[in-house]
Specification:
2 copies of one chain form a homodimer. Chain A is an alpha/beta fold. The first copy, chain A, is built from 8 helices and 10 strands.
Chain lengths: ~270, ~300
């Protein structure tokens, strides 16, 4: 697969990525950078923190306001910039950043974002819409579009079952506005960094397929499936060999998944909503 | 090409890399990490600084890690029992206190895994000029080189570390021998002034493995300067010596071939812009690492090393 040679100044394929850095493990910029590079992007990582390994989320209003200034200046410098925003604030009903960040996201960040990837909880608090079924989810998505985000992907929700996680995607942009649902098989246990991997690969695949959100999302979710399956497989292998399984063993097997990242075999289908 | 699945605890394929981070461009950890990852290594980068870009630009702004910060990070890894590495990689270090803290990390890592391979690029200067504080030299001589398994000095660094003036191949061999005696099992003098306007002579020597060997490698020069090449060299040397533990010749040929492909691609891009009448900036001269992924993974050999 040839890598498209990119024009550096204001051209395609250059990402400024502002996320955390962990020395060991794969979350934040560690989770996002390698896949984007493998997919042909020059990545300029601004590491908001440098920690030895992952821990709870830290967010501060002052940092987010500084990020807002960066967004505005970048857009002034390149009006065609695509801002992909994962509005990380919490999950499963719980906020894990300071509450004051919510208004900053609503007033300054989301209106400037082109693609947003909230989970169900984040979509609810950003829009004030309680999501109980597909219809209320569609209302929340519509509100996010009205707030300014042209493409909205609710990366995970509690709609679904014990086995299936339902994701939703919608775009008002490009030649083909579309509204999709994607049923994703769940894996046992928790894996950190999956959201960061999701958003990074979504950036890459929506760029590669600007008029086909369906294909982009299928590739993203298929990538996730392969990476998580490989990681789980490794964990199970250790378990079966009678070895104790540590937190480090549960880190995403990103490096080992290079082929799946570059060219994911589709194992998921999205359907029109 | 299948990626060998690695066993995390004390197994192969996990590198702690202590180098600088630039947001934009490819030097330090930005130059070393992607190639190592593409070659199947888990890389744990400790960013000794975070700057917007390398110092060749007009402005260079950012944050610096001090020795205490390094201790805190290492302690974090140790407390979680995740300080098990197959390799340690270090490059440019700007202060004595930080280098002493790196020394402590080396010693503790080796205590944790006696089979750790420490790859050290003793970055101190080039072409007769020191660009770090002079006090670093004694730290490298007394504490760092004796604990290094592979060292990649340039000619100037080899001279100041050994006190041997290198004027020809024979004096270079004397310097290399001294570095072996100081403790480094594998020595690669990545660039020297021996050679000509067109050819740069590199030298490699190892006393380890099934096949101790002594090599010379004639490398075609490219016009102009490219930053980050030394960091790319040392990182790919780490990878290829691990893949070919008993064949330094093949490892070095792959490393130098990789360098040739990456630099050629970068130069090609610069020339293309030039010919199109576009102004060529410092940013345009950054190594085209991302675009060279295939060459990094599987470099077509375009260079031969010969026995010395």
């Amino acid at each position: 697969m040839d890598h498209v040679d990119n024009d550096v100044l204001g051209g395609c394929c250059r990402v400024l990525s502002i996320q955390s850095h962990v020395v060991s493990g794969y979350v934040g910029n560690k989770s996002a950078t390698f896949p984007l590079q493998v997919l042909g992007f020059d990545v300029d990582p601004v590491n908001s923190v440098q920690f030895s390994n992952h821990r709870g989320y830290i967010g501060s209003k002052s940092f987010l306001m500084a990020v807002k200034d960066v967004i505005l200046d970048l857009k002034k410098t390149n009006s065609k910039l695509t801002y992909v925003c994962d509005p990380v604030m919490g999950d499963h009903g719980k906020l894990y950043v300071p509450e004051e960040l919510l208004s900053v996201y609503k007033e300054h960040i989301i209106p400037n974002a082109d693609i947003v990837t909230p989970n169900q909880f984040e979509a609810e608090i950003l829009t004030g819409v309680k999501i109980t079924d597909i219809d209320s989810a569609k209302v929340a998505i519509e509100k996010l579009h009205n707030m300014g985000a042209k493409t909205v992907v609710i990366s995970s929700s509690d709609l679904g079952s014990d086995e299936i996680l339902i994701g939703l995607a919608s775009t008002t942009t490009g030649k083909r506005p579309m509204s999709l649902r994607i049923d994703i098989p769940k894996f046992p246990g928790e894996f950190r960094g999956t959201g960061d991997l999701f958003t990074a690969t979504l950036l890459a695949w929506t760029w590669r397929h600007p008029d086909d959100l369906k294909l982009a999302v299928e590739k993203v979710v298929s990538t996730m499936q392969h990476v998580i399956r490989r990681t789980l497989s490794y964990v199970e292998h250790l378990s079966q060999a009678g070895k104790p399984v540590s937190m480090q063993h549960r880190e995403l097997r990103l490096i080992q998944s290079i082929r799946d990242i570059e060219n994911p075999l589709l194992c998921i289908t999205a359907v029109d909503l």
